[in-house]
Structures are given as C-alpha cells and as structure tokens.
Design brief:
alpha/beta; 347 residues; 10-stranded mixed sheet; 11 helices; two-stranded parallel sheet; 14 strands
Length: 347
C-alpha cells in the first residue's frame, strides 16, 4: 500500500483522510497542530492521540522529516547554511539569515534545477525532481527546531525554479500561512522566478499578498539569452507585461533581482536600460554582486562600478538597494554546498 504524505495535506484534506480510516473529523485538527505548530517528528510524540490511532497513522501515512546532513555557520554574520537529507538520498540547501527584524529562511523548491542560468551553481547538474509541499515546509520546521526560535520571513529563492514546481509551491504558500499552522504572514514571503510567464500570471490570479521577485539580470533580450536560457522562450516585453499584470491583480510591487557581473551587464548603458524598464512599474530593484563559482569565469563587478550603477538608478527615482552579502565564507551561493557534498560523495 502506498503511504499518503501526511505533512503535504491541508487541514481539510486531512479531515477527509481521517473519515476514510474511520476516525472523527476533529482528529485532523489535533494532528495538524502536532505536525505544523508543535513540529512533531514522530506519531509517538502526539500524546493526546490514542496508541491505536498513532498505529493507524503509521499504517496509512508517511511522515516527512528531513535529516540535518551538515550545517555551516558564518563567522562574519552568523548566517547558517543547512544541507538537509531527503528520504530518497537526495540533499537540498536552506539558509538562515538573522536580521534585527527577525529570522529569515531561504528554502529550495527543487532538487537541482533545469533553467541553466549561467552564473548559478544550482543548475550545473540539471533537475533531479520537484520537492513536495512537506519537503519545503520541513526546511523551515527543521531550522525552527534547531534554533528554538520563530522564523518570521521566508524566501523561496534557494535551489530550483519555484514556478517550475507551481502546484506544490502554491500549496506550500497556503499551508505556511494557514492560521492553523505557523501562520506566517503572506507579506513576509518572497517567491523568486527566472521568468516563466504563464505561471507568473497564474500566481497573480491566486491573489496572494506575497512578493514576486523576478531574476532579470539583463535589460536586452540578446544579453539575457547569454545569461539565462529561459530568455529564448519569453522576451523582456512579455516579462514586463506579466509584472504589470501581477501588480494589477495583487497590488504588490515587483522586485527586480539584478546580479551584477563584471564587464557583462554592469555598464551605464545597462543602468539606463534598467531605468527604462523599471520606471513604468511599481517595483524595487535589488542589485546583487554576483557570487563567483569555480565552474564559470564570471566575476563580481568592481565596487565603484556597483556604486555608479546604483547612483544612476537613484537619480532617476528608482527604488534600489544593494543586497547585503551574507554567508560569503560558507559556500554562500545557491547550490555550492550541495555541489561540494555531491562531489565528495562521488570521490
């Protein structure tokens, strides 16, 4: 018998499953609280459930719990990078960043990635599989258990393309913001995409109050195609139209993620192009000094070049920040720690 992934069930889905196994509906609320508030790792911890019901749950349900393979902590800023083991032997990365306003966790949405962005370590080995809602939730739950503190902000910007795992992503958002669970505010969730236009529009139609972050990284289709294969499918004009639609449907401003690569996309002409794209939209621009990876020859832009780029945007009244570098001493870039682990296992 195939076991049902209990941690990927919403409370109403769990009610139906309880009725199927001959239990009363209220048991679902008890189970849901144990799974998503008390963060129980085993049915035996659920002390207000009878031993018989605990056994029945073991017979019908699989309880997803990720194992901590390794954790690196930055000596610079206390950022923690976790490598979690999945039940099938795969591993995924998650990052804890501590800010004055609370704990922020960046999670992965896939094992690997098939988008092929040229400056990203996550995509070097391609896509292995999608993560389930439970596996996405468990990255947050595992870190919460480890630090004994509440997580207040979530960024779905680790390994994988969230819009390439759309249904599981949407279910994850519903569950992590459910008042019966951890009840994290939708406004404290950011979802990144390299620009899968149809799913950006579908997400807009959900009317969530989450922030959508578009990995833009270039202001012309030609240059974007060099950096990001997805640009061969969707043009910048299509992306901008999807961004407008997202704002119209949700009222939430878009974030443009722009990785500055030395000598590639960091000129004043690039800055002027970004001004033209950003000005008609209600958006925020996040400049990211690229995190070099050994498999590529891209380098970080020089400091004065980054400052000049920012100044150009600010003079044109574009809301812009330079992303604070965190965890640079602990394989900070997405996919680096997982890749090093895989290479070590192969050796």
């Amino acid at each position: 018998m195939n076991l049902i992934d209990i941690k990927s069930l919403t409370c109403s889905e769990l009610e139906r499953e309880m009725e199927k196994i001959g239990e009363k509906k209220f048991r679902a609320k008890q189970l849901y609280e144990w799974l998503h508030v008390k963060l129980a790792k085993d049915f035996s911890e659920m002390t207000n459930l009878s031993k018989a019901l605990q056994e029945k749950c073991r017979e019908h349900f699989e309880l997803t719990v990720l194992s901590k393979v390794t954790m690196q902590e930055s000596k610079i800023d206390g950022t923690r990078k976790y490598l979690f083991g999945l039940s099938d032997g795969n591993v995924v990365e998650s990052v804890l960043m501590r800010y004055k306003h609370g704990n922020s966790v960046c999670i992965s949405s896939q094992v690997g990635c098939r988008m092929g962005c040229r400056f990203c370590a996550s995509t070097l080995d391609g896509l292995v599989r999608n993560l389930t809602p439970a596996e996405m939730l468990e990255q947050i739950y595992g870190i919460t258990r480890d630090i004994g503190e509440r997580v207040s902000n979530i960024v779905v910007m680790g390994t994988g393309e969230p819009m390439d795992n759309y249904d599981n992503l949407v279910k994850f958002v519903r569950m992590i913001t459910d008042e019966k669970g951890l009840n994290i505010s939708q406004r404290n969730i950011t979802v990144s995409t390299c620009g899968i236009v149809p799913n950006m529009k579908k997400l807009a139609d959900e009317k969530f109050q989450i922030t959508l972050a578009l990995s833009l990284h270039a202001v012309t289709d030609e240059k974007r195609k060099e950096l990001m294969p997805i640009a061969n499918k969707y043009s910048i004009s299509e992306l901008m139209e999807a961004c407008r639609y997202y704002f119209e449907q949700t009222g939430r401003r878009i974030t443009f993620e722009y990785s500055l690569v030395g000598g590639v996309n960091d000129t004043q002409a690039d800055a002027e192009g970004l001004v033209k794209l950003a000005r008609p939209l209600n958006c925020h621009v996040n400049l990211i000094p690229v995190n070099p990876i050994k498999e590529r020859d891209y380098v970080e832009s020089e400091k004065q070049c980054i400052q000049a780029f920012q100044n150009k945007l600010e003079k044109n009244r574009i809301n812009v920040t330079i992303r604070r570098e965190m965890g640079r001493d602990i394989d900070g870039a997405c996919g680096q720690l997982r890749r090093r682990h895989i290479e070590g296992a192969e050796r």
